[in-house]
């Protein structure tokens, strides 16, 4: 269980170490200003090959209100080591708009601990590896692409 901090649009196409710092600080400030007291976990993040599910929970942290689905192949970067809080896990996602243009959004969640945030980063990297391997096997990714070239496009920086 995590506390979803929200999302913010980000710019750039090169996602390297530190690229989520500015968006995470913005989300952290909004989150800390909005709360009067510490909110309990309000979401459940489930990372699987091909998809990541963010189940939003009710105020009691129980029943699911709704769910956001993220395609693993459209996640450009993830990290679990932020200066503002080591408990934050963030990912950059390529959102496709109705007019087929796209935008890059940084999503962030606060975990119970730094270790939990790092576990999510490792789970995301494993999901990406499985997704990429399957897409390559199915011929959806050309065989002449080396896995190293593609793995540079998706980077996990967990500190």
Q: How many domains in all?
A: 1
Number of helices: 3
The portion of residues forming beta strands comes to: 25-35%
Per DSSP E runs of 2 or more residues, the count of β-strands stands at: 8
How large is the radius of gyration?
16 Å
Largest sheet, order of strands side by side? Answer: 1-7-6-5-8
Fourth-level CATH superfamily: Pleckstrin-homology domain (PH domain)/Phosphotyrosine-binding domain (PTB)
Please state the second-level CATH architecture: Roll
Average predicted local confidence, pLDDT: 82
Structural class: alpha+beta
Topology order in helix (H) and strand (E) letters: EHEEEEEEHHE
Largest sheet: 5 strands, mixed
CATH class: Mainly Beta
Low-confidence stretches: 145-155
Assign a percent range to the helix content. Answer: 25-40%
Overall geometry comes to globular
CATH topology: PH-domain like
The span between the termini is 21 Å
């Amino acid at each position: 269980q995590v506390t979803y901090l929200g999302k913010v649009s980000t710019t750039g196409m090169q996602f390297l170490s530190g690229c989520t710092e500015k968006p995470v600080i913005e989300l952290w400030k909004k989150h800390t200003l909005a709360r009067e007291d510490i909110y309990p976990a309000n979401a459940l993040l489930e990372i699987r090959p091909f998809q990541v599910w963010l189940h939003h929970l009710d105020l009691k942290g129980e029943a699911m209100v709704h769910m956001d689905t993220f395609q693993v192949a459209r996640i450009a970067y993830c990290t679990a080591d932020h200066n503002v809080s080591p408990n934050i896990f963030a990912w950059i996602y390529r959102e496709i708009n109705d007019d087929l243009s796209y935008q890059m959004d940084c999503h962030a969640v606060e975990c119970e601990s730094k270790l939990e945030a790092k576990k999510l980063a490792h789970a995301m990297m494993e999901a990406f590896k499985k997704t990429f391997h399957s897409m390559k096997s199915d011929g959806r990714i050309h065989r002449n692409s080396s896995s190293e070239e593609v793995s540079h496009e998706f980077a996990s920086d967990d500190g």
